[in-house]
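Q: what sequence does this backbone want?
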């Protein structure tokens, strides 16, 4: 099954979305913000959207 790349707007509709270079980075972000990774999705232009439970926080949120 081919995974389709999505935009940041689409990612934000799925939960609290943060962009990362790799899936491993998604887990690091989760640890930093105190959330478990819900899913990851290829991002338009490269990288991954890391989707966490909850409403979208600021894309620049570096808690």
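A:
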């Amino acid at each position: 099954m081919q995974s389709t790349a999505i935009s940041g707007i689409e990612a934000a509709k799925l939960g609290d979305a943060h962009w990362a270079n790799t899936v491993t980075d998604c887990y690091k972000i989760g640890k930093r913000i105190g959330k478990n990774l819900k899913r990851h999705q290829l991002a338009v232009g490269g990288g991954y959207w890391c989707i966490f439970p909850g409403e979208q926080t600021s894309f620049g949120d570096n808690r």
